[in-house]
Fold:
Amino acid sequence: MSFPWIEHTAVLTGAAGLVSTPARVWPRQAVAGKTVASSTCPAGDALAGLDALLGAAGRGQVWRGLDRLNVLLGFPHVHYMVLPWQAGLATQAQWQAYAGALLAQRSGVPAERLAVWIEAGRYGEPCLAAAAERDLLHGIDQLMRRHRLRRGACRALAADALLHHARRLPADALLAVPQPGACSFVARRENRWEDAFTLCFAHDDLRRQIAAACAMLGRLPAAVRVADGPMGWLALPEGGAHAC
Structure:
């Protein structure tokens, strides 16, 4: 059976991965399983790896122009932090400038080169923010045009993991999001976001990675949860966001 269009979701870390899912024309239509492909990025070039995967990916047979690409960005392409609440910030532009300045300080990348995501949170409480370099996002947009794909959602990997796992996190918890060569962590304390960061590792011992994260927090959370691999959860197509 042919499908009218394809929903592609790329995961960019130290390698590139692509999940292609046939779209449903009506809600209860049965679809074939997802196809999953991965590519080692030559010399760390995530865009080259993604270009190769998109070139080999299946396309919709009826409305090919409707094929869409969503993107999840992980290490080393994205930086995280938890923004303390600021009562004096009233507009989205003010929050973007505030987040950009703090993320620039944390990442060492000038604020003008960063695109920033701010995840929606409860009023008066800290919220999760992430940033990636604008040049990378521009390169992704160019690939979409080259492969004639509609632009879908773009989100930081740990933020997308939270869409899938947040409701199952207790009030005092640490969420670990393993990736090649690194692990991202989001900590919650008293039901509020406490901190978010990525640590690089030369080993894949998850217990040691979590111990390092707890040392950085200066405490041991009551619960630790490890996110499934992104090829398994892929919450992004149902609830995406764009960097600004």
In short: The longest strand covers residues 192-200. The chain is about 25% helix and 35% strand.
